[in-house]
Amino acid sequence: MGAAPVVCVVFLCGVLIPALGDKHSLYYIYTALSKDVALPGIYEFTALGLLNDRAIDYYNSQEQVKVPKQDWLKEKMQPDYWDKGTQSRRSKEQWFKVNVEILMQRMRHNHTNLHVLQWRHGCEIDESNGDVTFLKGISEYSYDGEEFLSFDIVNMRWIAPVPEALPTKRKWDDVPILNQYTKGYLEKECVDWLTKFLEYGEESLKKHFKPYVYKFAKKSTTNSSKLILTCLATSFYPKDVVMSLRKSNNSLPEHLLRSSGVRPNGDGTYQLRKSVEIQEDDTADYDCYVTHRALSEPVITKWDRKCRNCWSISSGLVGGGIGGVVVILLTLLCGIIFVLIKKGIIGIPGSKSHWN
Ligand SMILES: *[C@@H]1O[C@H](CO)[C@@H](O)[C@H](O)[C@H]1NC(C)=O
Ligand SMILES: *[C@@H]1O[C@H](CO)[C@@H](O)[C@H](O)[C@H]1NC(C)=O
Ligand SMILES: *[C@@H]1O[C@H](CO)[C@@H](O)[C@H](O)[C@H]1NC(C)=O
């Protein structure tokens, strides 16, 4: 989000201006597993609220209570909000339990393997000059990481990319009021909550955390005449970051790099790792170039190729404890999301309508 245009600017001019707009997002992610996997931090059902990619509330099938993940949210919302939220999450949990089963039958899957049903829904806005502009609303379901159903907000209907989703699409589209509700929720209710949360969490959300930048050089395991140069930026917030690996001050094209993608650290901050393979006798100057909203100027760190299989800290600022107790859970959850699920899934809030 927002990173792509910045990357282009950097590649074209070698200049870094983090011209990131004032975009904000509120997403809820529900994840239901077909069975208990008996791993710490992994539950049959979890629900997570994310404001600007940071956890604000959490629910799992073990504690069965919706809890705040940010102090400001805890302070601002009445106990009533959490009670209602808990009730709503519990009924969602039941809804998911039933529907995972229905989907498994439809997919002709049995209980031997683990299956995952996810729903992701929420909205994004731009709040540039005090005006709130609705950017997008998303409601999508995924099964085992594949998109299963997604809501077309413009035409107010469900899109079924796989035949198994068609019966559900037809059923839901047959009740226009349900689709009107979903559209209304995404465009209005979600935006209202998002702006309210932004106001409540203003102080905390304004806190940005600089990336620490680390570099390492080590021998390739597959070819001893090659070196792998790696750059790691971590502990930054917000999520948008620009990292390029440069040879003689020129950014290497992305297709030559191996990138981890931006990943959550679990404490509300993020990390990104990129590496490139070079000839051991390559004498050009390589450096790692990182820019981020929290940095007044880019961090540029050079590789000293004499320093093999070692690493050094070149820049950083201690982040401090954002986020909360759910850290490990989130990390594991994200692991599941990444491994099992390429696309999120979303459904209709409060809908009693099952897949069949
Ligand atoms: C369950 O599904 C797996 C994978 O499709 C299959 O190998 C296995 O035989 C099935 N088990 C039963 C009891 O049907
Ligand atoms: C290692 O890479 C070099 C240069 O690409 C190549 O000439 C050489 O054959 C490679 N060695 C092995 C063991 O793959
Ligand atoms: C890269 O940029 C630095 C600082 O601007 C400069 O000192 C250096 O000579 C440049 N290196 C090359 C290879 O252009």
From TrEMBL:
Keyword field: Glycoprotein, Immunoglobulin domain, Membrane, Signal, Transmembrane, Transmembrane helix
Protein name stated in the entry: Ig-like domain-containing protein
Taxonomy, superkingdom: Eukaryota
Membrane-traversing stretches: 317-341
Organism: Pygocentrus nattereri (Red-bellied piranha)
Family affiliation: Belongs to the MHC class I family.
Gene3D superfamilies the record matches: Immunoglobulins (2.60.40.10), MHC class I-like antigen recognition-like (3.30.500.10)
Pfam family name, one: MHC_I
Segments forming domain Ig-like: 211-301
Biological process terms in GO annotation: immune response
